Amino acid sequence: MGDLQEKAEYVERLLASTKIERFSYLVICVASAIFLLVCAVISVVRNHGDITVAISLFGSSGVITYTAGQIMRVWTDAMRLVMPPAPGGGDHGK
Question: Where are the domains of the chain?
Answer without folding.
Answer: 20-82
